[in-house]
Amino acid sequence: MAPKKGSVGNSHSRGDRDMDVEDRFQAVVLTDSFETRFMPLSADKPRCLLPLANVPLIEYTLEFLATAGVNEVYLTCSAHANQIDEYIENSKWNLPWSPFKISTILSPEARSVGDVMRDIDNRGIITGDFILVSGDVITNMDISKMMEFHKKMHAQDKDHIATMCLSEATEYYKTRTFEPAAFILDKSTSRCIYYQDLPLLSSQEKGTVQIDPELLEGVDEFSIRNDLIDCRIDICTPHVPPIFQDNFDYQSLRTDFVRGVISSDILGKNIYACITGDYATRVESWQSYDTISQDYIGRWCYPMVLDNNMQYDQTYSYESRHIYKENNVVLAQSCKIGKCTAIGSGTKIGEGTRIENSIIGRNCQISEGIVIKDSFIWDNSIIGDNSNIQHSIVASNARLGQNVTLNDGCIIGFDVIIDDGMNIPKGTKISAKPIKDLSASGFDLDDSDEITDEENTEPFSSLVGENGVGYLYDSDTSDDEEDASAGIHKVSNCLTHQIEELYLSDASISSITKRKKKKRTMSSNSMYTDREDIESEEDEEEDFEAEGLATVERALENNHDIDTALLELNTLRMSMNVTYHEVRTVTVMALVRRVYHFISTQTLGPKDAVHKVFNHWGDLFKRRAFEESEFIDLMNIIMDVVVDTKFEKPDLILFGAFTSLYNNDILEEDVIYKWWDNVSDNSKYDTVKNLIAKWVEWLRTADEESSEEESSGEE
Amino acid sequence: MSAQSMPSLVSNNHPTAVTEIEVSIDSFIAKLKRKQISGSYIIALETLQLLKRFISAVRWSNVNELIAQIRELGNRLEKANPTAFGCGNVIKRILAVLRDEIEEDMRETMAGQGNNDTNNNTNNNNGLTPAEPLISSMFNLLQKPEQNSQDFYESRAKTKTDFRQVVIQAIKDLIDEIKNIDDGIQQIAVDLIHDHEILLTPTPESKTVLKFLIRARERANRTFTVLVTEGFPNNTQNAHDFAKKLAEHDIETIIIPDSAVFALMSRVGKVIIGTKTVFINGGSIVSSAGVSSVCECAREFKTPVFAVAGLYKLSPLYPFNVEKFVEFGGSQHILPRMDPRNRLDTINKITDYVPPENIDIYITNIGGFAPSFIYRIAWDNYKQIDVHLDGKQK
Prior knowledge:
The complex is a heterodimer.
Chain A: H1 2-17, E1 26-30, E2 51-52, E3 55-56, H2 57-68, E4 72-77, H3 81-89, E5 101-106, H4 113-123, E6 130-134, E7 137-139, H5 143-156, E8 160-168, E9 181-186, E10 191-197, E11 222-225, E12 228-236, H6 240-246, H7 253-263, E13 270-276, E14 280-282, H8 286-297, E15 317-319, E16 323-325, E17 330-331, E18 336-337, E19 341-343, E20 348-349, E21 354-356, E22 359-360, E23 365-366, E24 371-373, E25 376-377, E26 382-383, E27 388-390, E28 393-394, E29 399-400, E30 405-406, E31 411-412, E32 417-418, E33 423-424, E34 429-431, H9 438-441, H10 460-464, E35 471-472, H11 486-492, H12 499-523, H13 531-535, H14 540-558, H15 562-576, H16 580-600, H17 606-617, H18 628-645, H19 650-663, H20 669-678, H21 686-710
Parallel strand pairs in A: 1-4, 1-6, 4-5, 8-13, 16-19, 17-20, 18-21, 19-22, 20-23, 21-24, 22-25, 23-26, 24-27, 25-28, 26-29, 27-30, 28-31, 29-32, 30-33, 31-34
Antiparallel strand pairs in A: 2-3, 6-12, 7-14, 8-12, 9-10, 9-11, 10-13, 15-16, 34-35
Helix pairs in contact in A: 4-6, 11-12, 14-15, 14-16, 16-17, 16-18, 17-19, 18-19, 18-20, 19-21, 20-21
Chain B: H1 15-34, H2 40-57, H3 63-80, H4 85-113, H5 115-125, H6 138-143, H7 146-155, H8 163-179, H9 181-192, E1 197-201, H10 207-220, E2 224-229, H11 236-248, E3 252-256, H12 261-265, E4 270-274, E5 277-278, E6 284-286, H13 291-300, E7 305-308, H14 322-325, E8 352-354, E9 361-364, E10 367-369, H15 374-381
Parallel strand pairs in B: 1-2, 1-4, 2-3, 4-7, 7-9
Antiparallel strand pairs in B: 5-6, 6-8, 9-10
Helix pairs in contact in B: 1-2, 1-3, 2-4, 2-8, 3-4, 4-5, 4-8, 9-10
């Protein structure tokens, strides 16, 4: 546990240093959620640049930060990083009168929020308390109240490291059920005692919360709440990124970090929850996209409303019944614009068209006799006569022919063309380019993944018509075990959430999250690759041996630096919950194998090989053994392994290993004596002990001589 | 969105000064849009401060350019938040002062040029308020001034008067006026409120109304009762604070529900409202919804309605489309959050328009006026040419 303590201490000192620059108020925006819920659209554009009410999502977060009075904003980007970077480069936030300094951090390697946090820690940009917010938040929250709460709690509790902001939802508000979670809060201080993801309403599992009774010690009264929308706005102290650094296996912000911190008595840190009644939610799925768009148009997020025209070229004006129109909208005389509608500039709407509860982008051509209800038409789309669009999304530059019907929950991707008279069934997602199987591409949506696959074109003309362009995007093609819910899933990870479908759609989301988790482990760095196998407990030890060996061998092979190797091992150790003994065994085995490899390939002589390997990698043991008994254990392990490996001259190898370790100050003389005194008398060791016996003898005499010379009476 | 699309206000002679002022203008605009600056008093003062910095930074070769630049600034501010009339109002006031000054300057110059003919005239007029010069015949009357002044604006590159100083002085004067607005209004208060009268105010957030009442109590030692409407949902907190402050000054204060206004109106002696903006037709925007119906009630009972307003709230605009001038707030105060598909549509006006026929008298810092007279005061302070800042000057 020593490494942990060490780095926590380190972060303390960091905190102290930063008291001086407290007036800087920083924010970290996580633009990538490491999810694929917005596929197929997020294949072309990152989630945070998808438009909500004709404004890219990221703007809402930045607007919130500007109102909050933040001075420095760091945007972390991984997928589509260059797009985000370019967008920010040209945005108003990069101009001299921007309320804050904005910089993008590109970390295309990151595979989870945890990776991003570690990256931030490595860069050392955090100097004080900072806001950690995801790039898809829409809120009108007053951050100053939360900050006040944070400061107050910080003064009361020095172990307080983060404040989560949670928004209260009423029972009528269904958005809260998208990522259900139970927060167990201390009633008097609103300290978060425990956090647990809940199964969704529909799933067969029962929602149970298991709390370790120890966690409840010293708590008078606590409340268990599942009516809170987790909007992912956290105020963190600078101690937070190092915690991610120390716990290499932390991936997600809530399930891993919050749970890990509050249930770990080693860290001894506390997280508090600040509950607000203001509007605060995340756009995390198509359903919430739909809900939040309508909320936004319905002015539930006031004073953040569309007719504030926060973008320089926006010209929205408000009319009663929540109709927003920009300048240069051309409306035919007989068209009907119903309530809760926004129309961007340059859009033309033809005779007899009816639009209600919808958001229409800029420069759209909407012809005659069309019905658009509850839908989202993005910029530059063209819709032919007499089409019927119900509760769907038509992305930018899409073209719909005449008499096209889009049924509930369709998502028409960028640049898709649909021929005349097509009827697109419920919940279909169409993209202009075929998108390869999710499980293969993972999160890394590089162009290389989007190889045109001829076999994939099979539903193509039947769906979009002869002259159409588009491929069916079927998120269920990936082989997930939850096939039972797959059929429902088709409909559900889309806009629809009418009451009768609500339960079904919930089920599908649960399947998504599950699959997502699985996928994450697959595609993340090699050290996690086999996590699933590990979960089967019976062969845990063997697994560790194999895994550990592989890890160390990889380190040797690729000549990693020692810190990295150590971290990897440490992660492995913690994730599999094994003792240091196993770690030492594995390390020794790997090293000895290496030596054997050198000798057998005759690259080096036995002596040189041992010295080379143990001199260089001996440090691996430095932080694997702390007490005398542990060092003795180590020596025993080395001896065992050496004997087992059946070298030609085992005594030479063992002697070489020990002397190397001794010369590198890893083994102390006292330890060696003690080990020698208690060494096993088993006959199989006899051969190897020859040289060691002489060496120990030599050591003792040398020691005595030196002590005599110094005339300090040591033994 | 990008720098190119933004109009550059100032010529590029002094890049550092230019960017500095651009930065402060744009951050001011952003604040207006985010509604971080609110309240007509604050908006007016902040706008003047900004204008002062702007005037010190800009460069111009002739007066016409200066006017164009100020108009451009005003246009941008007005567009940033169309319901914050304070910005436009003060800028238009300053423009009016500037134009007056220019006219006077021109007249002097012309007098100088035509020294021989009009010697007597100039001597007579010197130092006096600018009277219409040289109208000696019907012919002149028809031919007159626009042509000349237009020529002047364009032709004259050099002027005797330092217009930068003129504008800055005008801004200083206006700031003084706005800061001391209450004195003027309070003077009248004493005469208007009688002993044992019952007053009703539906605009508890108005500082002017608060000071007006407190002054009446303290200076004249009148005893009276104030009814305050609750203003649910947007104004309730304000109403409570208002009532507390009045009670601290020993004024009997009662908070009544909005629904009780009609029932109580028969007992009310006067209705006092604070305004956000007064339009040229004498109608006004008030800062809480429901005031319009209160004024309607008052009219039904023939109860006099007094509107208190500083002169800076007077806007030269005419409310053709009231909906455009009224502000709509958030829905969250009215209903609990529900899913969009099965909730009611909510509309939450946060300001209200009171038509001129429902207001009996405006009490301003320069005296009391009937709504029908407001237009006259407006033209004393504004120029017709500057009513709409967008579009080209004639």
